[in-house]
Amino acid sequence: MIAAEERGVKSEARNVVRDFDVDALRAEFPILTTLSRGKPLVYLDSAATTQKPRAVLDAMRTFYATGNANIHRGVYQLSEEATLAYDGARDVVARFIGSQHPDEIVFVRGTTEAINLVARSFPGGGLGDGDTVVVSEMEHHANIVPWQLAGARTAPIPVTDAGELDLEAAARLLSGPCRLLAVVHVSNALGTVNPIAELCRMARARGVPVLVDGAQAVGHMSVDVTSLDCDFYCFSGHKLFGPTGIGVLWARREHLAAMPPWQGGGDMIDTVTFERTTFAPAPSKFEAGTPNIAGVIGLAAAITWLDAQDRAGIAEHERALLQRGQQLLGEIPGLRLVGTARDKVGVLTFSVDGVHPHDLASLLDADGICIRAGHHCTQPLHRRLGLTATARVSLAPYNTLAELDVLTTSLHRSAKLFAR
Amino acid sequence: MNSLAELYQSVIIEHDRSPRNYRALAMPSHRAEGRNPLCGDEVSVELAVLPDGTIDDVAFQCRGCAVSRASASMMTVALRGKSTDDARELFGRFRALLVDGGAADPTLGRLQAFGGLTAYPMRVKCATMAWHAMIAALSGDREPQGDRR
């Protein structure tokens, strides 16, 4: 067993990046001071969901405690304030992703619902038999199944052994008959950052619109839909330090105008009669029923919080964590890292010879360490890589080098347990 | 070392490495497959039951984690020579230990070690996967019920 000290890593070696104070950042996340299985919580599953800073928890609590009312209905002050907070959040989200038009922001439950909405209400008469949607082999099931349910065929861009998209193959696929390119910005399973702007240029030259699954991107990098030049961008609040149950579909205004509503109900109509109903303009057209008001308020608080952070410092800190993690894991006998793209975020996916990832995850869990094990909702990718399941460590700005040492010690011990 | 590591060390790893009755039966009278959609693990269980209801032979094959392999292996050892009624009853007691957090049950013998999994409910279905397949096989169902936890 190699103790952290022997490897020359001091547990308080926290500030690898000058002027970035990880302890101050950690202090904003109440959960990080809790115990798991009697041990200090080491949360390394932020690609599944990030933890929430106090700013988000407070915003939601304050709304329910002192500001709760339904929106777009009451004429009284409380309802008016709730409405202003809800619709004001569109401005916050639009600015965050570089959209000039807050009415291009549709609030949904999450990335999955955003993609399903586009699949169900696709502009230009909808998707159906004979239509092809170009996706990639590294897509999350949420960017495969909705297109299949809509009746389209999914044609995947191959992934190289390093976990990058084969752009020549992408060009060939986009040159064939296809209605849409639907591609992930940052892979949840590999951490690969895909060249979205380049893919959008390729698609646009062939008249193909582009939907981007940005679930894993928005928490790690600045996203600007205008400079990416995509058509649809989808993401979730809960991977962005915000609450679960809230997400965003951004789409160009001309697309939203051309898309039929997908759910009927209150708030999405213009006038209703038994003979004929007319609909409100976007985004209301796609937001039937009382929405997740507290979720929207929490999402806006998360974005405001993130915008106030030193994002360059965070990015540098995450790079340092990723490098150190790759180095430490690389020293574990029988461990194979999966996904070695040149441009990647803090995701370390791996397999250990002779050890099933679920056994590994449970043994780590007993040490208070949270990692993900399984196919990470990317079965086609795992099939492509010849793996059934993998273990995944995913990093966030609140993680530390000391936590990577705890992880490594536990991994060494677990691997040794199984060693013959 | 934590208690889960001890559980792995005491029984699981040994059966994972050298699973008993890991084979296909030449003439199974009963057969079923089980799978855990969460992780994609799969198990097939085959039994040769005599006309008087005695389990003459039982074997398994699987692609899965150490917990599911070890549990399946120990199940085959425990069931050989038992009546099908006893097999169902044994599963009831094994399941009670894991799922319902039942009290220690000395009649379970070495299977008692799996009681350590009660603190890990997400892993209980790994330990019961082969057992559900066994019950499904005896009941003539191809697809067993799983523990939905």
How would you describe this protein?
A 7-stranded mixed β-sheet of chain A has the order 4-10-9-8-7-5-6, sandwiched between helices. A 4-stranded antiparallel β-sheet of chain A has the order 13-14-17-16, with helices on one face. Chain A is built from 14 helices and 17 strands. Chain A is an alpha/beta fold and 420 residues long. With 149 residues, chain B is of the alpha+beta class. Helix content of chain B is 42%, strand content 17%. Chain B has a 3-stranded antiparallel β-sheet, covered by helices on one side. In chain B, helix 2 (66-79) packs across helix 4 (121-139).
Task: Note the topology.
The complex is a heterodimer of chains A (420) and B (149).
Chain A: H1 22-26, E1 35-36, E2 39-40, E3 42-43, H2 54-67, H3 77-96, E4 105-108, H4 111-120, E5 132-136, H5 145-149, E6 153-157, H6 167-175, E7 180-184, H7 196-205, E8 210-213, H8 225-228, E9 232-236, E10 247-251, H9 253-258, E11 269-272, E12 277-279, H10 293-307, H11 311-330, E13 335-338, E14 347-352, H12 357-365, E15 369-370, E16 372-374, H13 379-384, E17 390-394, H14 401-418
Parallel strand pairs in A: 3-15, 5-6, 5-7, 7-8, 8-9
Antiparallel strand pairs in A: 1-2, 4-10, 9-10, 11-12, 13-14, 14-17, 16-17
Helix pairs in contact in A: 2-10, 3-10, 11-14
Chain B: H1 3-17, E1 30-36, E2 41-49, E3 55-63, H2 66-79, H3 84-98, H4 121-139
Helix pairs in contact in B: 1-2, 2-4, 3-4
Q: Quickly count the helices of chain A.
A: 14
Largest interface: A-B, 22 and 23 residues
- Evaluate the radius of gyration of chain A: 22 Å
Q: Supply the helix-strand structural class of chain B.
A: alpha+beta
Class by alpha and beta content of chain A: alpha/beta
- Cα-atom radius of gyration of chain B: 14 Å
- Beta-strand portion of chain B reads 15-25%
* Element-by-element helix/strand order of chain B: HEEEHHH
Report the major sheet of chain A.
7 strands, mixed
What's the overall geometry of chain A? globular
Measure the end-to-end span of chain B: 27 Å
Alpha carbon gap, first and last residue of chain A: 16 Å
Strand arrangement across the biggest beta sheet of chain B? 1-2-3
**Strands in their spatial order, largest beta sheet of chain A:** 4-10-9-8-7-5-6
Return residue spans of chain A where pLDDT drops below 50 for at least 5 consecutive residues: 1-14
- Share of helical residues of chain B: 40-55%
